Amino acid sequence: MTPPETLRLVAPSAGSWSVRVVPNLYPAFEHHEVVVHTPRHARSLAELSDGELSLVAEAWRSRSQTAGREGFPYVHALLNEGAAAGASLPHTHSQLVWLDSPPPAVTAEERRSCPVCELLARELGDGRHTLESRGPLAVIAHPAGRAPYELLLAPVTHDEQGLASELLGEALSSLASWLRRLHAIEGAIPVNAWIHTNGHWHIELLPRLTVFGGIELGAGIYVNTLAPEEAARRLRAAPLGA
Predict the structure, then answer these.
(1) Strands 74-81 and 19-23, how do they pair?
(2) How many alpha carbons lie under 13 Å from residue 56 in its C-beta half-sphere?
(3) Most exposed of 56, 88, 136, 168 (fewest Cβ within 10 Å)?
(4) Residue of 48, 50, 36, 44 lying closest to 8 (CA atoms)
């Protein structure tokens, strides 16, 4: 059983529901919601179709608009998969945390010039870490990744639409595609993902292949044993998977 839903989306060919949003039973914040991605049993975002992912994006967008009307201008959308990544449910889902201001990790990215634009200009020009750059979205193996296979996905051109962006569904489909490739290489590993929407929005995927210790947590220095160019090479060569 789940708490009373705050949103229900139904695909034209679906039954009673396709995506549901419900309050988190164990909220970390006043407004903390769970987005149930599909009624069929699926463990990972990688198992969802483009149509299902489009509805997930619609749910994020709708709840973000509601949050804004109720005085919460920033919604932190996140994905935890696997116990080591903080997931307590085996069924694929995401979480929406309503905040009255952008969180510290987001405000730390604010400066006069756009750090995402600068990163993409450098990386897409070099190409060694680029996974995808055709069309409106780019995906790169992060050049300063905190863990093996850390990815960054963002619109190629500067875009501050965030959860309201028309590219959000396409971005989730791209994320799922690269997650399938990662599964083909490493198996169904635990991962965290989130979207930053203050400024040039982007999605970060952090596979939990290493355990962060005192150096990482205490000094903020991340020891990554896989070079980003090797991560990019392996991901490009990997099959898409099921």
Answers:
(1) unpaired
(2) 30
(3) 88
(4) 36
Tokens of 130: 């680029």
Q: Which amino acid is at 159?
A: D
CA 175 from centroid of its chain's CA atoms: 7
Query: Which domains, from first to last, does the chain contain?
Result: 7-237 (3.30.428.10)
Q: What residues contact residue 145 under an 8 Å CB cut-off, 6+ apart? A: 222, 224, 226, 228, 231
**According to the model, what pLDDT value does residue 14 have?**
66
Mean per-residue pLDDT of the chain: 94
Token pair 């791209």: residue = 174
| Per-residue pLDDT reduced to its tens digit, 58-115 | 999 999 999 999 999 999 999 999 999 999 889 999 999 999 999 999 998 887 789 9
